[in-house]
Amino acid sequence: MTEPGATVRIPIVERVLEANDEIAAALRTDFQHRGIFVVDIIGAPGCGKTALLEATLRALGGRRRSAVLVGDLTTRRDADRLARVCDQVVQISTGQGCHLEADQVRDALAKVDLDRVEVLFIENVGNLICPVGFDLGQAAKVGVFSATEGDDKPGKHPYLVQTADLLLLNKVDLLPHLSFDRAAFEADVRLLNREVPLLGVSAVTGEGLEAWLAWLEAGARPQHS
Amino acid sequence: MTEPGATVRIPIVERVLEANDEIAAALRTDFQHRGIFVVDIIGAPGCGKTALLEATLRALGGRRRSAVLVGDLTTRRDADRLARVCDQVVQISTGQGCHLEADQVRDALAKVDLDRVEVLFIENVGNLICPVGFDLGQAAKVGVFSATEGDDKPGKHPYLVQTADLLLLNKVDLLPHLSFDRAAFEADVRLLNREVPLLGVSAVTGEGLEAWLAWLEAGARPQHS
Questions:
Q1: Consecutive sets of 10 residues in chain A, 225 residues long: mean pLDDT of each?
Q2: Is A155 on the interface with B (CB under 8 A)?
Q3: Which of A49, A158, A217, B138 could, after both became Cys, cross-link B40 (CB 3.0–4.6 A)?
């Protein structure tokens, strides 16, 4: 029984995270067993995650079999866009939920033929904060900043920068029109994470996409020659 | 006592929201009594909330006495910028907290001389989702989208659009460089909220600022002539 008025917030939060971590660990084991490279993509609303995935899936099409899980509060807009370039796309509607959790990933995977997947992209809900704390069983966490958001964002979102396996600075095609100090941005990243690779990309011009694809290829299982 | 394993998430969330609403109601009564117009500004990271406030405070300087509370996970960057154009600015560091709550507003106000305030701006944590559900005692909620985020964002964030008293489309100076369908954006807003005023603005060129200032003046207490 819960005593009315009792302060039990912290144990509850811990229990939710523990339950999430257990499911995520099981997912990770299964992904590794199947040789699927799983990437959790985290960025603010409008940072260009979907456009980047469209370009990525087009480029990967011939090289790697991919699937995408895409989280949004509501609408199927992103899934509909991605379904044009990938035959296995599942939309996860979170309602008022601000991030994806491992059980949502597990349930969505029931709709995916994992035998036909080498790279699984999880496009998280557009949010720079809440998704960072939830393990989804991914092999790598990719943080996406957009140049249009300003050069001061890494320091303001340290948990993502510290835990990311790769950072992308998207929409670099717009840099000529912005007041954005790329050296300041990079210095901000390096204060928090000396190791993380940082790539400038543009889904519009294709700049940087080859480096991003090479990073994906390095993470995926070696192909049979 | 809390029984281990008991599922008590929903009562806890309800209790947190009820406690928040009680504090917010008390704040609202106090703001109304003092004749202070309080605006909660909600938008994604990098949508330009701070730049817009800088321009707004510069323009309001001679007309209205203002104060700002500014929420961020970490750093004093926004507060430092705003302190150059406003003598009463308080940074609220939320740590890993993804939104402001009413008790944080109440505590921050201890550092503000409210007798010298006619308009109080609350710049919420950069997040389009979580801040929407927390009443801060404001008179008006202002949602900020950036043109750089794409024209599809209102439908993906219906709770903000439905509850906002004003929507701003910021960074309209960049529209010539973007693939952004302004009619589609506005139609998306109108499907969710037929009444809410919608203003295009740019902190860089000043476009739309007079309309935004007029909206603020209409909400603030009439000045003595």
A1: 45 85 98 98 98 96 92 95 97 95 98 98 97 97 98 97 98 98 98 98 97 96 69
A2: yes
A3: B138
